[in-house]
Design a protein that fits this description.
alpha/beta; Aspartate Aminotransferase, domain 1; Aspartate Aminotransferase, domain 2; two-stranded parallel ribbon; 13 strands; binds pyridoxal-5'-phosphate; PyrdxlP-dep_Trfase_major; pyridoxal phosphate binding; pyridoxal phosphate
């Protein structure tokens, strides 16, 4: 390239490795190929799971077409209030609802972005993040001009949370350091803190004046109960913390492409509500102006209709039970095949992902057997079904024995 260009300083950005895997999967002509890579919930036939309650909400919306006018700067009111209730629960809202500022934002990613920008405006830029983790956090912190510090989240030897490392980090960082936590169904490890561990974390954070930020992208898909999965957030609220929550409806309503989410900011003195709320709105105005309406309207219909909400909650439970059933099937099959190694973590972990412990090399060998997982060993359990689960387990068995 010899022509002088204003773009000459740019180099090509790397694709997300998962995109490459998806392209290879699409090109593979084998009818028995299995996709357990990208983090979307699949149904029994391997298609993206579509919630029946969302189909019903679409129907209701079509019959009550609100048109396409601008909505409000803070988002669709009924959606934001429903989203608040889902996260904080009726009790907190009844007693201290005026201690929560909330706006609609662009799903989980956009909510995180607005929360990070908001934290920056109040001087919070140092982020502590346990790894492995969702790969977008680091680049997102860098993008807003913050600094990321990593600690170990997962102990390969015990195949569970590396709690010692977290405690050591909490005990050594400066005041007002930000800890970015996933509330449940940790991506990619499927390993979450226990209540006792959250309590210990909270004690140290309170004593050392550290700041949490919660990313909740899988509420309901851990335990099957949306309220139970919100426990850490409600606990930190009741412990008197000030913090942001970044909420996504991509997974628990299957609204991936509609970009439905909210940012909530908890303040201890409701006198600050007008300042916090208006700052969130002003930030969003500069970034996006208005949030997209269609998906949020569907979510609002569900969250403001008791019967439909109950049906949606049942569906969340149903899909979670299916994940648990598939995990058990994997363990049973690997046990039957006497696959070398300890595979019990498949039933101990939560949510969509199984952090299998398979290496990048083993993953490449799996691809040759038409099983498309991720190089870090993260398996999307919902991609398994009656037709492919035996092939999946046999492929793992063969790859492990090839060592
Ligand atoms: C842990 C975590 N946080 C946030 C997100 C962002 O989700 P979205 O922006 O699609 O709502 C994801 C998506 O996979 C995730 O796994």
């Amino acid at each position: 390239m010899t022509v002088q260009s204003i773009f000459s300083q740019l180099t090509k950005e790397e694709d997300d490795p998962i995109i490459k895997t998806m392209q290879e999967y699409t090109r593979d002509p084998n009818p028995g190929k299995i996709d357990v890579s990208i983090g979307v919930q699949k149904d029994k036939s391997g298609k993206c799971y579509e919630y029946r309650s969302i189909a019903e909400a679409k129907h209701i919306l079509a019959e009550n077409d609100p048109g396409h006018n601008y909505t409000s700067m803070a988002g669709i009111g009924d959606f934001v209030s429903g989203a608040q209730r889902l996260i904080f629960g009726d009790d907190i809202l009844a007693e201290r609802g005026s201690n929560i500022a909330s706006i609609q934002a662009i799903s989980g990613t956009g909510s995180l972005h607005i929360a990070m920008l908001f934290y920056k405006t109040i001087g919070l830029t140092e982020y502590y993040i346990g790894v492995p983790t969702w790969q977008n956090y680091g680049p997102m912190v860098k993008h807003i001009g913050g600094e990321t510090h990593y600690y170990s989240y997962y102990d390969e030897s015990t195949k569970s949370v590396d709690f010692k490392s977290i405690l050591a980090t909490l005990n050594s960082v400066p005041v007002h350091s930000v800890f970015l936590f996933q509330t449940c169904c940790h991506n990619p490890t499927g390993s979450d803190f226990t209540h006792a561990q959250w309590q210990e974390i909270s004690n140290i954070m309170k004593q050392r004046r550290l700041i949490p930020i919660f990313d909740t992208a899988y509420q309901g898909l851990g335990s099957g109960d949306l309220d139970a999965d919100a426990w850490p957030i409600r606990y930190f609220f009741n412990q008197g913390f000030e913090f942001a929550v970044c909420q996504s409806f991509s997974k628990n309503m299957g609204l991936y492409s509609e970009r439905v989410g909210c940012v909530h900011v908890v303040l201890q003195d409701s006198g600050y509500l007008p300042a916090v709320q208006s700052n969130l709105v002003a930030l969003f105005r500069k970034e996006c102006s208005f949030a997209p309406a269609f998906g949020a309207r569907l979510a609002a219909i569900i969250l403001n209709n008791a019967k439909l909400e109950e049906r949606w909650r049942c569906e969340v439970k149903e899909t979670t039970l299916r994940l648990k059933y598939l995990r058990k099937r994997v363990l049973d099959k690997l046990t039957e095949l006497k696959t070398p190694g300890n595979w019990t973590n498949v039933v101990e972990q939560n949510g969509l992902f199984w952090f299998s412990g398979l290496t990048s090399e083993q993953n490449s060998k799996l691809i040759k057997k038409h099983v498309y997982s991720t190089s870090m060993g993260r398996v999307n359990i919902s991609g398994l079904n009656e037709r492919n689960i035996d092939h999946f387990c046999r492929a793992i068995d063969e790859v492990v024995r090839e060592e």
